[in-house]
């Protein structure tokens, strides 16, 4: 059985650690105001991806540690020039968490699954025939295991797709973005298909180009133009009738008595 087919039959035991350098969010605790928030997120689990170590500043991704290549990957090259982070630090934390995970596996075989909320929207205002990007935002889910597919007119799409890392939330759940480059047309429709342990069945989020409606200003102008033309027609018709009546009673047109 393929891993993606087993995702609803296997319960992975997961250990997650989310640290906020300047903001600590606890249930029942009062809100703490801060000018800037620095966040790092780390998790390990028995399902792929087996783990992640990443860092954010004010909800902007700074870097993550590639666990296979064992190196730091900066979101922007400029970040790597201004700051530094040794990948071994993240790898050491991952190793410790894996050891703790093995201990937890012996004590528990159940992880509560929180189902995701999914929205689909275009990156830019839609113009038919102009390239654009569809964004599928998958939010408020746990554990960080997803199977996401793009469909166009019900058919699987594999080209022009991309995705973000699993991004942490302050409530210790996760969110993630999936992207699809496309050229809008009036006939095509798209779906973002999401599978997660918290869902009883795959969730389909639909997007299609809405029919182009005539702007209200255009409708108003056309209505006013029609009214003006109608009034002009009435006036012209009245003038012609009056002229016709006058010509029929012109004394010069009658003989001398």
TrEMBL record:
Any Pfam family the entry gives: MHC_II_alpha
Signal peptide, first to last residue: 1-31
Any single GO CC term annotated in Swiss-Prot or TrEMBL for this entry: endosome membrane
Stretches that traverse the bilayer: 224-242
Gene3D superfamilies found in the cross-reference section: Class II Histocompatibility Antigen, M Beta Chain, Chain B, domain 1, Immunoglobulins
PROSITE patterns in UniProt: IG_LIKE (PS50835), IG_MHC (PS00290)
Membrane topology: Single-pass type I membrane protein
Entry's Gene Ontology BP terms: adaptive immune response; antigen processing and presentation of peptide or polysaccharide antigen via MHC class II
Organism superkingdom: Eukaryota
Residues in Ig-like domain copies: 116-196
Principal location class: membrane
Subcellular location: Endosome membrane; Lysosome membrane
Keywords: Adaptive immunity, Disulfide bond, Endosome, Glycoprotein, Immunity, Lysosome, Membrane, MHC II, Signal, Transmembrane, Transmembrane helix
Similarity annotation: Belongs to the MHC class II family.
Protein name stated in the entry: MHC class II antigen
Organism: Homo sapiens
